Each structure stands twice: as C-alpha cells, then as structure tokens.
Amino acid sequence: MRVRTLAAAALAPLALSGLVACTPSARSDDASRVAVRFAAAVAGREGSQACSLLTQKARESVTGATNATCAAAVLNVQERGTGVGQVEVWGDAAQVQVGTDVVFLLHLPDGWHVSAAGCVPQPSAPYKCDVDG
Amino acid sequence: MSPQSPNRFFRDNGLTLTFWLLLVLALVGQAFSGNAEFNHQQIVDGAQQLSLWQYVTSTSFAVDVAENWQSEYLQFALYIVATVWLVQRGSSESKKVDQIGTQSDQDQDVGRHARPDSPAWARAGGLRTALYGRSLGAIMTFFFLMSLAAQSVAGQAANNVNLLHQHEDPVSWLDYVTSADFWNRTTQNWQSEFLAVASMAAFAIYLRQRGSPESKLVGAPHDATALDS
Question: How far is the alpha carbon of A87 from chain B, nearest alpha carbon, in Å?
Fold first, then answer.
C-alpha cells in the first residue's frame, strides 16, 4: 500500500504530461475532411460552400475592405489538388497539407473550420495566406 | 483515542498541513485567473473558450504548473546537496565550517553507530544505508526531473497550439526543448529560486526571526554558524 501511494505521488508530474500526449486520429481525420471539402469547394467554384467552412475571422479576411462577397472572393484562393499530406493536430488547432496548399483549422463548438488557406511558408515568420483569419 | 487527538494531530503537523492548504488555494487561484487570461487570448484568436475544468486539464495549465514545480524541486535538491559541501559562516542555513562533506558514520549515527531508535536502513549498513543517506536529495532530484519532463511535454503541446493559432509550423519535442519558449520559462523560474537561496543564506547571518528554526537565536553572535548558536 505504501509503495503504491509513493508511486502515485511520484507519477503525479507525469500525469500532468499525460493530459497532453494524445491526439486521437479521429480528430485529425475530421480536420482533414474539412480541409479537403474546402479545397474541393474552391476548386469546384462553389464559393458559398467554401465560405461556410471558414471561421468568422477568416470570412472577414477574405472580403477585407472590398465590397466583394465572401463567396466571390474566396474563389481567388489558390487550391491545387485535394490529396492529404501531413496532418498536425494540437489542442483546438490543426494544420493540414491539401494538394500544394497548407490549410490551418480551428475546432469550434460546431466542429472544424478553416482559419487560413492558400498559405505560403515564410522564413522565421507565420505563413503568408490568402485567407488569414 | 482521546478527544484531544485531532487537535494534537493538527498541532503536530501544522507546518505540512498549512502549506498543503496554501498549495491548493494557490492552485485554485491560478486556475481561475489562468482560465480568464487564456479565454481572453482565445477570443483574440477567434477560438473556442474553455470551461474551468477544460482549462485545468489543458496543456496550457499543465505547463504553467510544471514549470514552477520543477524550479522549486531544483531549488531544494540543489540546496540539500550543495550544503553538504558548501558552507556560509555565520548563517543558520549552514552547518559549521569544519563539517564540510558527508561526515563520518559516527557523526551521522549510522551503521554500528546507529541509535536504538534510528531508522532500520540507517542501522543496516552497506548499500541500504548509503541509499537512505542520500534519499532526501534523490527524491527532490527525481521530482525535479519528472516536473521538468512534464513541462517539456506540456510546453511543446501548448506552444504548438499557439504556433498553429498564429499560422506557423508546429515544432518537435527536441526543437521545443532547445527553443526560446522553453528556456525563457525555465530560466526565469530558476533565477528567482537562486536569488531566494542566496538571500536567505546571507540575511540569516545578520538578521533574526525570534522563535523560527530557520533563524539563529536572537542573541546569537553574527559569526555563529547554525549549530554554534
């Protein structure tokens, strides 16, 4: 009993790290599906469908200071291919490589939404993205 | 068991119990304030806010707890081991200057010099006594290393969430433990612990706290070191 108590106390710090270690594949699958649907919608000229997958901030970033609608402006995003490459999911955020694009997503109460797309890496800086919410 | 037993228990263990209580209160305070700050940043990022329970089981809370735990355990581990070999003349935090080192078995009441009421492993001699004689520093070092490991794992995850929110690539564990975030969190805690130890060792030479075992007797001379006083 004493040994078990000691062991539990000793492992307390490990328990802290255990809270963070798992990233269930279901979450990465869900994030990938949304990223692919977004890329497919843009490639298929379905602007409304693509906009419905964006976060609020991303929708605002697409239209910017113009009078264009989100559905029209989002079609300017460069999406080539829907093949899924590397997927990273950490907490409520994800990064999915779709075709030649890198898409960032946030997990909101109603599921994954695209927060950035049409992204190009920058040296020692955040990606430069056509959609950047 | 006499009716006064609970009172005696609390009196006899007041130091430990009080600090456990303070730990819990401080953690509760950290949970509420940390959750508020975290959720503010989530709003800025356009991300989902977390409930209190979700926050205290998050990597963000875990890394903030672990980074402080590791530095505290490091402080005590270093202090326990360093004071075997390092002394401070006149400080109540130091042993006498002519007692540097691990001292003799007779000085330490171990092996054949053990007292009748000495712990069994102190009487046993050999490896068991050698291990037991270093168990305090070892357990503090163990908790330091475990807390540091927890900080590195939780910190990597929390840092990667932030990086993804900012549309940057996440980093590997190895990249994280060599990153500015990890070492900034670590060294800012270490420097405060080292300052506290150095201050305590020096202040205890000239200043007194009547009734505290951490202080020399109020009337003890400044050059009296610990057990001299």
Answer: 11
Cβ-Cβ contacts under 8 Å, B67 against chain A: none
Q: How many CB pairs under 8 A join A and B?
A: 97
Contact B63, B182 (CB under 8 A): no
CA distance B229 to chain A (A): 37
Q: Which residue has the tokens 């264009």?
A: A68
Q: Per the structure block, which two tokens stand in for B120?
A: 């069994």
- Distance to chain B for A20, nearest Cα, Å: 6
pLDDT mean by block of 10 residues, chain B; 229 residues: 76 96 98 98 94 97 97 96 94 90 95 95 95 97 98 97 97 97 95 95 94 93 75
Q: Residue B204 is encoded by which pair of tokens?
A: 């205890």
Q: Please, what are the domains in chain A?
A: 24-132 (3.10.450)
* Helices marked H in B59-134: 59-85, 105-108, 120-124, 126-132
How far is residue B4's CA from residue B13's CA, in Å, rounded to a whole number?
A: 14
Quickly state the pLDDT bin for A54 (edges 50, 70, 90).
very high
Tell me the one-letter amino acid at B126. G
Planar angle of CA B92, B97, B102, nearest 5 degrees = 95
- Phi first, then psi, for residue B218 (nearest 5°) are -55, -35
Kindly report, residue by residue over B13-68, the tens digit of the pLDDT.
999 999 999 999 999 999 999 999 999 999 999 999 999 999 999 999 999 999 99
Angle at A65 between CA A60 and CA A66, to 5 degrees: 100
The answer to whether the Cβ–Cβ distance between A91 and B65 falls below 8 Å is no
Task: Single out the residue of B172, B218, B204, B219 nearest to residue B89, CA to CA.
Answer: B204
Q: Name every chain A residue with its beta carbon within 8 A of the beta carbon of B161.
A: 90-93
Residues of chain A with Cβ-Cβ distance to B143 below 8 Å are: 10, 13
Instruction: Report helix, strand or coil for B228.
Output: helix
pLDDT at A12 exceeding the cut of 50? no
Residues of B within an 8 Å Cβ radius of A: 45-48, 57-59, 62, 65-66, 69, 142-143, 146-147, 149-150, 153-154, 157-158, 160-161, 164-170
Q: Quote the ipTM score.
A: 0.82
